[in-house]
Amino acid sequence: xxxxxxxxxxxxxxxxxxxxxxxxxxxxxxxxxxxxxxxxxxxxxxxxxxxxxxxxxxxxxxxxxxxxxxxxxxxxxxxxxxxxxxxxxxxxxxxxxxxxxxxxxxxxxxxxxxxxxxxxxxxxxxxxxxxxxxxxxxxxxxxxxxxxxxxxxxxxxxxxxxxxxxxxxxxxxxxxxxxxxxxxxxxxxxxxxxxxxxxxxxxxxxxxxxxxxxxxxxxxxxxxxxxxxxxxxxxxxxxxxxxxxxxxxxxxxxxxxxxxxxxxxxxxxxxxxxxxxxxxxxxxxxxxxxxxxxxx
Length: 296
Fold this sequence. Notes:
This protein has one domain (2-293): Alpha/Beta hydrolase fold, catalytic domain (Rossmann fold), CATH 3.40.50.1820. The protein contains 14 helices and eight strands. It has helices at 34-37, 41-47, 73-86, 100-111, 127-134, 137-142, 144-148, 153-172, 182-192, 195-208, 217-227, 250-259, 276-279, 281-293; strands at residues 2-8, 11-18, 23-27, 51-55, 93-98, 116-122, 235-240, 265-269. The protein has an eight-stranded mixed β-sheet, sandwiched between helices. The chain is globular. It starts with a strand and ends with a helix.
């Protein structure tokens, strides 16, 4: 596996890559890193004939902090589409995203459909479904970090005791009980161990779900323009049965699957929590490779 970097939109983005062939861009979420989240997936995609590229999003080391501090979803989308260009991606490229990376994948597929042939997303469903869930009692309780991160004290709490809060929430809430999240947490320490980087990561929530903006018509229009429409491309949506953050039942999964375009699929990964690509790599890889290989 090689590690390189490229400047897009004025920000140096570092990435791990392996393989040759059509671009497969793998996008991570909070508070992770690309290489750690997809450590099992990158070599499998490379062996299947893809150029698998897993960047760290802006602000997450070793990628650079954006000079203007902007961590809006629109920036992540612009970066992903610019990476497609900078890395020589063609119309046969695929985008794969988890968590924030899933939201980004929904958005790049919609805003630049000519770049992406297929979409794989996990752990954050399309906006229509995620937005509905986030407004329920269960969603508000399960996604309480969205609201906690709006507080100034969050910077100090997340940094304290060698990021003990992050370690605990990753192990006890964001992954299934049987999973050991130690390797994933160590990657978080490398990516967000500096105060400015941890602040940038928290700003994902402060800038995209700002208390005085969230729920306003302007806020809704901005998000809808990015990921309010499901992709026209064949799409695979995967979700962990043990996800304690975004809880989904059979009816919800079926509704998501029914909303997607022709040739799409939606499936549970049994025994996985919210970090599906790392928690159940064999099952995840099997599903992804079969989907990418099938005729539609």
